[in-house]
Amino acid sequence: MSSSTSGSQPPIVLYHYPFSPYAKRIVWYLHLRGIPYTQCLQPMIIPRPDLSSLLGIKYRRIPLLSIGRDVYLDTRLILSKLEDLDLPSSQPKLSAAPGTDALALQTLLSHYSIDGGLFSRAAQLLFSLDNPLLRDPKFLADRAEFATGGAPPKFAREDMAALGPEALADLRDYCQMLETTVLADGREWILKDTKTPGLADIEAVFVLHWVKSLPGALPKEQFSEDKFPRVWKWVARFQEAVGETTKPPQKDGKITTVKGDKAQEMILGAGWNEDSEKKEVDAAEAIVHFHGLEKGTVVEVWPTDSGSGQAHRDVGKLVSLDAREVVIENDKGVRVHTPRHGFRVKPSSQAVASSL
Fold this sequence. Notes:
Elements: E1 12-16, H1 21-33, E2 38-41, H2 49-52, E3 64-67, E4 70-73, H3 75-84, H4 101-113, H5 118-124, H6 137-148, H7 157-161, H8 164-182, H9 199-212, H10 220-223, H11 229-241, E5 256-257, H12 260-268, H13 286-291, E6 298-303, E7 314-321, E8 325-329, E9 335-339, E10 343-347
Parallel strand pairs: 1-2, 2-5, 4-9
Antiparallel strand pairs: 1-3, 3-4, 6-7, 6-10, 7-8, 8-9
Helix pairs in contact: 1-9, 4-9, 5-8
């Protein structure tokens, strides 16, 4: 599937920082599949010149994954692409089979954790903890910019901390659901009769894994192993299966880490991973008809679930658009792939702040 000019597999570069719970989703996947990759570590807060200056990417979230000169945004799109693409790996793909109840469960768990607000609820627990990040004015200003586009935060820390009991109730409900339904029959993994963790486990575990790593976030009297024995044994099995436990997928057991300029050289010196030129701008899509979009239209693409879209819109010539994704090529020669879900696309000359 690669269109690298050399015919070889384009390099895979993961932009992330180790404490990102969303980045963990991709690291786990790469390790479970045994897909070798290079990492370019990023600061927790913007600016990130490795992306904005060197690759022309304004998207401010972590992680991003490049495969050659194709850069994929949003973990849901990244995971689905890693499943779809023919990449060198030592282990089989992780998704449930198409058309099965198992795939429905996997998809519902993804929506539950992200769109359903479980992660957002878990993040509210931070304000009840003695976390040094919440005493760092730079970090607070960065997250305020993300949430509100630069306006003052909507809630004071005390107000956010007051939401903690509600967040705990939602997390307890989630544990109860897993304990009494999916895991109730004693299976080892989310999908029955599987011998190793799959994509459904990644979707289901990442919020619990993250909040469990925050000292004091989960009161023992509400979340003990006695109350949810199947859940916490499953989480422990998952931690053992990924590394926290296993060796990285490289043969020497070490992940290569490069600086931004080296990552830029690797990416811009590679070919395309996908031949997106063969894809179309689907005229049947309502957004295409509404804006009169066609190949080559200069558009802006940005996520719609935060207030930072005004300052962090990616601009480029439209390469393809369908029900699943938008692909644009920016002025650095990088093709940026975003999902349709949760993202907005429109001609750049018509973008207005009032549309946010």
